[in-house]
Amino acid sequence: MIEYFKRLYLDGEDKFLKIVEDNLAKEKKMFIVTANPETFSYGEKNEVINQMLLDREVTLVPDGIGIVKASQLLHFDVKERITGIDLATKLLDMCNKNKYKLCLMGAKEEVIKALIKVINEQYPNIILGSCDNGYIKDKDAYFEKIAKENPDVCLVALGVPNQEELIYKHLDKFKKGIFVGVGGSFDVLSGTKKRAPKIFQKLNIEWLYRITREPKRLKRFYESNVKFIFKIRKIKKRNVRK
Ligand code: UDP
C-alpha cells in the first residue's frame, strides 16, 4: 500500500493542469488515475490494479479526501485534492480552446445524451468522437473503435475500478491521448445531478453532501474511508516501530 502513496502527484492542481495541457499540445499519451481509498484497496486485492498503480507510465493524483488525509498521516506532502470532476471540466475547456477530439464512455444512456447536448451547446469547438453509455455489453469493442479515431482526450465514467481497468487494458492501442476515469462526473456535467455546493468542496466534506443525497453511499464510505484510515494508522505504527 505504501508504494502507491509514493507514486502520488504532490504539487497541486494548477501545476498539474499545466503538465496535462503541455502533454496535450505535444501529443504525449497520459493515463491519469484519480485515486481514492477504494482505488488503493482494490490494488491490494486485484493484481491488474496493483500493476497499474505501480506502473511508471500511469499518473496517480489524490482525488478523495481520504487519500489526502492518509498521505498526510504518512508524511507525504500532498497539497490538495485533484478531483475527477475538476479534471474533466478543465479538459473540456482545453478541448474547446484547441479544437481537440474528445471521446466519452460511461453513465446511463440518458445521461450521456444530455452530456452530448451540453457539449454541443457550451463547447462548440470540441470535435466529438464516439460516445457511448457505460452499460453497453462490449466495452472492448468501443475501445477498438476509438483507437482508430485517435482522440486527444478520452473520459471514461464507469466507477472504480472498472473504468481504470478498461483504460489500462487498451492503452497500448493508442499513440496519443489523455485518458481519465472520472467516476460520477458525467452525471454532474450533464446537469443530471448537482455537485456539492462550493462550501462543502472547500471544507473537504463533499462526501457528506453525497451521502445526504444518496444515503446508500454511507456503507461504501464506511468501508472505503473509515476502515482505510484505521488501516493507515496501523501501517504508520508499524513503520514507526521499525
Ligand atoms: N456506471 C456505468 N456502468 C456501470 C456502472 C456504473 O456507466 O456498469 C456509471 C454510473 O451510471 C455513474 C458512474 O458510473 O455515472 C459511477 O458513479 P459513482 O458516483 O458511483 O462514482 P464515484 O464518483 O463515486 O467514483
Which structural traits does this protein have?
242 residues, 13 helices, binds uridine-5'-diphosphate
Briefly summarize what is shown.
The chain has 242 residues and is α/β, with parallel strands linked by helices.
Characterization of the model:
There is one protein chain. Helices cover 56% and strands 13% of the residues. It has 242 residues and is α/β, with parallel strands linked by helices. It has a six-stranded parallel sheet, sandwiched between helices. It is globular and about 55 Å long. The model has no long low-confidence stretch (mean pLDDT 95). Uridine-5'-diphosphate (UDP) is lined by residues 106-108, 134-135, 157-160, 183-184, 186-187. Uridine-5'-diphosphate binds next to helix 10.
Topology:
Layout: H1 2-6, H2 13-25, E1 30-35, H3 37-45, H4 47-54, E2 58-62, H5 65-73, H6 84-98, E3 101-106, H7 109-122, E4 127-132, H8 139-149, E5 153-157, H9 162-170, E6 178-181, H10 185-189, H11 198-202, H12 206-213, H13 217-241
Parallel strand pairs: 1-2, 1-6, 3-4, 3-5, 5-6
Helix pairs in contact: 3-4, 5-13
Bound molecules: uridine-5'-diphosphate (UDP).
